[in-house]
Write a structure and sequence with these properties.
three-stranded mixed beta sheet, isomerase activity, 11 helices, 13 strands, Rossmann fold, about 15% strand, single chain, six-stranded parallel beta sheet, about 325 residues, alpha/beta, multifunctional enzyme
Length: about 325
């Protein structure tokens, strides 16, 4: 399939970790007409503002990477914001994209869409087969709605309007542009910050929430960006061959997972923290395991290129070079 590098591509959420990585990837590939808007320029929860933007810019493609995201603490503390903001952003961007004639759109979801006790590794077929993890259910519900919205527009307008809206579900992501807030961040950036600060003051011990036994899969964000552009550029027949009309999303994972205890040791090594690592089992663990089955995407020809140890060194370097 020949890709038109001059088509206008709108990346929603370009200042976020994933969105900025997608912009980097598109630029490296030679895309010459990338459109972005900062939040202060365009509030994606504002329907009228989003309508005006699409009517003015008329993009050819949309990468919907904008979302309100956070770790266990943030999801537990702000459930209303997590479901409202994400639903509003998705509804406005997807619907206005359709109204303005956008044929190709990529929606980025999350591995938390799958049931808390889904068989491991989690395949796309596990969606809506069981109860969600309570700590992030509002966020997961919003992401599931985004997938189903894309599927619904494809079903209703695919043949008549040429609509081809796709969805990718990344595993846990990390890397440059991450949120390192001490309470509202995900596990890797939170631990990078904590180990770094402990190293700076020669703290003898770092205590981590939970038992350390849950297992998680992690993907470097530039690999996720590469997968996103890969999926967007796929011929429709190839994409459809690996998906289903009522289950059209694709998992994007690394292919293996580690325990939180193993992750902590790897981060301590990347940061060069020499103290003791211990765990606080009185704090919540979250989902016991989240490991994605990325076989369908692998069958299409995509595989990750950056392993965890390499990625953690890159992520720590980015943290040190930031203003965190």
């Amino acid at each position: 399939m020949t890709t038109d590098l001059n088509q206008k591509v709108y990346v929603a959420g370009h200042r976020g970790m994933v969105g900025s990585a997608i912009v980097r990837n598109l630029q490296e590939k030679g895309y010459a007409n990338i459109v972005t808007r900062a939040h202060k320029e365009l509030d994606l929860t504002n329907q009228a503002a989003v309508q005006s933007f699409f009517e003015q810019e008329k993009p050819d493609q949309v990468y919907l990477a904008a979302a309100k995201v956070g770790g266990i603490h943030a999801n537990n503390s702000y459930p209303a914001e997590f479901i409202y903001d994400n639903l509003m952003v998705q509804n406005n961007v997807i619907h206005q994209a359709f109204l303005s004639g956008v044929k190709k759109l990529l929606f980025l979801g999350s591995s938390c869409i799958y049931p808390r006790l889904a068989p491991q590794p989690m395949s796309e077929d596990a969606l809506l087969t069981g109860e969600l993890e309570p700590t992030n259910e509002p966020y997961a519900i919003a992401k599931i709605a985004g997938i189903k919205m894309c599927e619904s527009y494809n079903r209703q307008y695919g043949k008549s309007h040429g609509v081809d809206y796709r969805s990718v579900m990344p595993t846990n992501l990390y890397g440059p542009g991450d949120n390192y807030h001490p309470e509202n961040s995900h596990v890797i950036p939170a631990l990078i910050r904590r180990f770094h600060e402990a190293k700076m003051v020669n703290a003898p011990e770092v205590v981590i929430w939970g038992t350390g036994m849950p297992k998680r899969e992690f993907l470097y964000v530039d690999d996720m960006a590469a997968a996103s552009v890969f999926v967007m550029e796929l011929d429709k027949a190839a994409y459809d061959a690996q998906t289903q009309p009522m289950q059209s999303h694709l998992n994007v994972g690394f292919g293996s997972d580690v325990t939180i205890a193993e992750l902590a040791s790897a981060i301590a090594a990347a940061v060069n923290y020499q103290g003791k690592i211990s765990f606080d089992p009185s704090k919540p663990d979250g989902t016991p395991r989240k490991w994605m089955d990325s076989g369908r995407l692998n069958n299409l020809g995509w595989n990750p290129s950056i392993d965890l140890d390499q990625g953690l060194v890159l992520a720590y370097t980015a943290f040190c070079n930031s203003n965190n």
